[in-house]
Amino acid sequence: MPAAETSGIDRVEMHVDGIAMVRLLGPQDRLLKTIESHYPRVEVLVRGNYIALSGEPEQVQAAKTLVEELVHMVKNGHELGAVEVASSAKILELRAGSPAELLSQAILTNRGKSIRPKTLGQKDYVDAIDLNTITFGIGPAGTGKTYLAMAKAVQALQRKEVERIILTRPAVEAGERLGFLPGTLTEKIDPYLRPLYDALNEMMDAELVPKLFASGTVEVAPLAYMRGRTLNNAFIVLDEAQNTTPEQMKMFLTRLGFGSKMVITGDVTQVDLPNGASGLQLVTRVLDEIDDIHFSRLTSADVVRHTLVGRIVDAYTKYDAEKQAQRFERDEAAGPNRTEHRRSQPQDHLPQKRWGR
After folding, report:
1. Separation in Å, CA 291 to CA 96, 131, 288
2. CB-CB contact of 242 with 268 (8 Å)
3. Lesser CB count within 10 Å: N end or C end of the chain?
4. pLDDT tens, position by position, 229-272
């Protein structure tokens, strides 16, 4: 409750019960420090079961609302981390609704761990998967594109909305050469598919996963294995789609059968194709206005890994934009000069065409 208001400074005291307080503060009071970093004009003091907020009135009220939302999330069993605190503050800043309502809906719960969207962008992405037959999740590393898509796939299977899950990705080398490694074809492609296996094992009971593979209910395969098939009553996830060629992307999308749903994920800034022609980059222009196809674009604000990852993504994005601007300026400056240079060259110097061979 408000305790004082003098000379433009507000002071608010809030009572939080013991268990909720411990979970609200986090290890070494890390979450408290995250709250303070979002509201630099607010001083936060904790004494026993009371939190005191004092400082600039507008920020004090904003911090109070955030703490109330976080306490509500904790009491509902939500595991809090720095990402959830930052996302909740952003949602309140944008007046997009209640963070406790937007971020508390679990997709899956396994071994006491709940999988749920942690940012507003992730929430929009998950909602788009529910509402559309084909959803593209495009964004940098660490935004949960594939993990959330797989969670929705497992959820759909558990609810009997689909009969099987198909997880696929192109087997494209990211700078390494694995083709000469010993082993069978399956052993050679396994490193490309391992992230999908690992995520699946986190979401389902360990003893159940092998049975689902044996029965064909869950299939993990390279993209090349999709050719010539029609995929009915399935939830299909294509990961690392930036490494598909335009022809492969068209092939994959046209595998869609009745009663199926597709999610395609990728990061257009990490194309490993030799010629750089990405099917994911092209499809955003070709299919952007077709109904029942949705493009969710996640950003560094949706990164749920270490906070440094978001800053690394932003730094590379800025660097790439600057390099692209520099190339554009060079091309613009060199264009007329190149034209004049060609005009000034004697025609005798041009290579002669040879016919008949």
Report:
1. 25, 11, 9
2. yes
3. C
4. 999 999 999 999 999 999 999 999 999 999 999 999 999 988 88
Check: CB of residue 237 under 8 Å from CB of residue 150.
Answer: yes
**Radius of gyration (C-alpha) of the chain in whole angstroms:** 26
Quote the Cα angle for 297-300-303, to 5°: 95
DSSP 78: P
Q: Determine the 3-state secondary structure of 97 from DSSP.
A: coil
CA pair distance 71, 289, nearest whole angstrom:
41
Alpha helices in the chain (DSSP H): 18-25, 30-38, 57-75, 82-94, 99-102, 120-131, 145-158, 185-203, 208-215, 246-253, 279-286, 307-344
Backbone angles phi, psi at 294, to 5 degrees: -125, 140
Q: What is the pLDDT of residues 171-219, one digit of tens each?
A: 765 444 445 555 555 565 667 678 888 888 889 988 899 999 999 999 9
CB neighbour class for 110 (10 Å; exposed up to 12, middle 13-18, buried from 19)? middle
Residue 321 has, within 13 A of its CA and on its CB side, a CA count of 6
Phi, psi of 290 (to 5 degrees): -90, 130
Three-state secondary-structure class, residue 4: strand
Q: Which helix (H) or strand (E) holds 263?
A: strand 261-266
pLDDT band of 158, cuts 50, 70, 90: very high
